[in-house]
Amino acid sequence: MRFVDKNINPKQLSPLNLAFIGDCIYELLVRETLVCNANRPVNNLHKESVKFVSAKAQTSAFERIRDILNEEELAVYKRGRNAKVGHSPKSATESEYHCATGVEALFGYLYLTEQTDRIKELFTAINA
Q1: Are 106 and 16 in contact, with CB atoms under 8 Å apart?
Q2: What does R_g of the chain's alpha carbons equal in angstroms?
Q3: Burial class of residue 61 in the structure, from the number of CB atoms within 10 Å of its CB (0-12 exposed, 13-18 middle, 19+ buried)
Q4: Which of 18, 50, 84, 119 could form a disulfide with 108 if both were Cys (CB 3.0 to 4.6 A apart)?
Q5: Cα separation of 111 and 114, whole Å?
Q6: Integer angstrom CA distances of residue 42 from 54, 73, 86, 120
Q7: Cα separation, 128 vs 111, whole angstroms
C-alpha cells in the first residue's frame, strides 16, 4: 500500500532517492513497533528508536537479512550502498554509513513497488 496515488518506476529513481523514502519507511516500522510494545513517554520512545535507526544498527540489520535477499533486492541494496552521498558521516564509519544507505534504499524500493509483505518479512527477520 502506498499513500500517494502517482505512478512511478522505482527502477528509474536514483539510489539516494530510494534511500530518502526508505529511511522514513524504516523509521516508521521502528516507531510503530515501539509504540505497539509499550505505552511510554515520547522521550523514551525517541531514545529507544535511535538505537535501531543508526547506521551501526542498520549495518547489523543488513547482516541479519543478507542471506534471505533475492537477486533483485541485493542489486537494489548494492546500488544504495555504492551511491556517492557527498558528505562524511558524523557518528558512523564510512562503511557503516554506506551499508545503512543500502538498507534504506532497499526498504524504499520495496515500499514504492508495494511489496508490503516483503517489508514485514525482512523487518521481522531483522528483529528476530
Answers
A1: no
A2: 14
A3: buried
A4: 18
A5: 5
A6: 18, 34, 33, 24
A7: 21
Which residues are identified as catalytic?
23
Asked whether the beta carbons of 22 and 113 are under 8 A apart, the reply is no
CB atoms near residue 83 (< 10 Å)? 18
Whether residue 107 contacts residue 25, with contact meaning beta carbons closer than 8 Å, is answered with: yes
Burial readout 89-121 (b: 16 or more C-beta within 10 A, e: otherwise): eeebeeebbbbbbbbbbbbbbbbbbeeeebbee
Taking only the tens place, the pLDDT of each residue in 36-74 is: 998 999 999 989 898 899 999 999 999 999 999 999 999
What the block records as the C-alpha cell of 52 is: 535501531
User: What SS3 state is found at 118?
Assistant: helix
